[in-house]
Amino acid sequence: MTSVIHWLSIAEAAELIAARKLSPVELTEALLRRIEALEGRVNAFITVDGDAAMAAARTAADEITKGVARGPLHGVPVALKDIFGVAGVRMTAGSKILAENAASEDAAATARLKAAGAVILGKLNLHEFAFGATGVNPHYGPARNPWDLERITGGSSSGSGASVASGECPAALGTDTGGSIRIPASLCGIVGLKPTYGRVSKRGVLPLSWSLDHVGPMTRTVEDAGIILQAIAGRDDADASTRDEPLPDYNQTVRVGVQGLRIGVPKQFFFENVDAEVESAVRSALSLLEAMGAVIIEVDAPLISEIPGGVTAIMLPEALAYHQKWMTERPDDYGDDVRYRLELGATFLAVHYVQAQRRREMAVAAWRAEVFSKVEMIATPTTPITARPIEEGDLQVTFNLIRFTNPLNFLGVPAISVPCGFTGEGLPVGLQLAGRWWDEATVLRAAHTYEQATDWHQRRPPL
Amino acid sequence: MNSQVPTAAPVLLELAGLHLPAEREAFLAAGLGGSTRPIAEALARQDYGDTEPAARFRPPASESR
Predict the structure, then answer these.
(1) Which position among A23, A95, A158, A180 bears the catalytic label?
(2) Within-domain flag for B56
(3) Cα–Cα distance measured from residue A336 to residue B28, given in angstroms and rounded to the nearest whole number
(4) Which residue of chain A is at minimal alpha-carbon distance from B7?
(5) Model confidence over A314-324: pLDDT tens digits?
(6) How many Å from the N-terminal Cα to the C-terminal Cα in chain B?
(7) Packed helices A336-345 and A307-329: angle between N→C axes, nearest 10 degrees
(8) Is residue B32 assigned to a domain?
(9) How far apart (Å, rounded) are the C-alpha atoms in residues A41 and A149?
(10) How many secondary structure helices (H) and strands (E) does chain A include?
(11) How many domains does chain B have?
(12) B38: distance to nearest CA of chain A, Å?
């Protein structure tokens, strides 16, 4: 077990809290000290809500003393990307436009975390309005990659990646419209899970693209991602995309192993134009999974050449629809890159949007018939590149970062990024595993089995 | 429809209520020619059959439920 408090996983902290060897107050104080010590360099938080966090920690401690047990998140601090509503707390969305905005109520995911006893530490930096993949923010500054502070974290959940990787909190919530959970997870060397579309309610989360947005956990271990998902998943009548689907006990299913599990390696697209060190790390991970009993099978990637365009034709018009009022009244208050993407949204015709939604149905049917009938999951690099220097620019880096993640938003399947190595420069590499709709359990199981056979998740950045 | 998009940009922007400085409009038109034209071309293919769009209106539950 980890001996330094700020590096405890959720599972480790929960065990100590349950055994009365660690109090939620002690844990929260330690993380607030860690945040205070690092924030000048990492810039992961936009708002630290220390007073509320300590009050929640004291409440959890009192409950535990009285024998109330809310589960593994009871008394454990987490942080939220700054597009999740927390009643009465500032919610900027990383923007100038909402700099003075406060949420009127908790987002559904916030409420579920609170009900599970979690302590909310604060609100995390992000790419402005979650509309970008680098995490470079002109209004609040970039969140910095803990493995190299001159490099990007990836985005849009940039602060979520930086805070978890630097030991400021054991877990954070992010959102993922084209890769915004998995990209920073990959670049920061942590775990990021985009669940099935509709598995987690989006109510109270500021939207980017209603058809493609997903809410999910970012943690340092796969087991912890399952703990968070268990707490936030489920139907919400206020979010019509959510459904009543069985929710397994991930704490049990994660430990089953990979014997006989069929993992598909796409023959097209997902291994093209990949940095050599990234491909090498991912191929090594596949070899290890095969040695542990998984069956590696080459599969086609049907309709893949059309999917990224379909994502764009849905995402940009939906984003502009949400932002139209501000774009007409205060366009100069946006950062250049976000404003440009929103302007592009105006140039898609209605017929493009509808055809993209039809193309999405066709892609889902094709992948169900031609891929997920043959294998339980596919494996790819999460990103073809590792963390780039902050000053490198936006357009080409963004294009590369989202290339392997955004097709899975289009399909709506669950997908996880788990650390699978480091480059010679010491930068993390992520393995992406994507499974069948609603089968997060198998994705978590494969990722956990791989993780436990390696030590990538135990390495710490040089802060 | 694809070939009409770049030249139609000023009209579409106006319909969306967006008013861009000339240099940004030119930059946008350049982007359209480069990045969104292939998207429009792909979506213009007529192989949809009877596929309906993925996004659907969801009526509220019945009162008696």
Answers:
(1) A180
(2) no
(3) 12
(4) A347
(5) 999 999 999 99
(6) 45
(7) 110
(8) yes
(9) 7
(10) 15, 13
(11) 1
(12) 8
